[in-house]
Amino acid sequence: MTRLLIIAFAATLLTACGSMSTAPIERYNRAEVVGVEEPDMLKMRAGPGTGYDIKVGLPNGTILRVENCSRIGGTRWCEVALDRRPGLRGYVSETYLRPL
Fold it and tell me: Using an 8 Å Cβ cutoff, are 24 and 76 in contact?
């Protein structure tokens, strides 16, 4: 009986956590590049996928303006612009963005 209550509690907790999903990153409008291992950089690409040319490398801490994100294959790609140079635009993987 105790085991059944623990399982029921765990299922309820997991359901509650699943329903508290974060809002899509584009709702925040700005994001910071995070989680890129040194000395690598996040690659801003000309299009939403690894088959597109790399425009520039972005180190951790770079602030971006996020326009929109969409799933291409197994990755969510976001159309972004540099916060300090809005004319420099491209696409990055949402995996490496933290909303501001």
Answer: no
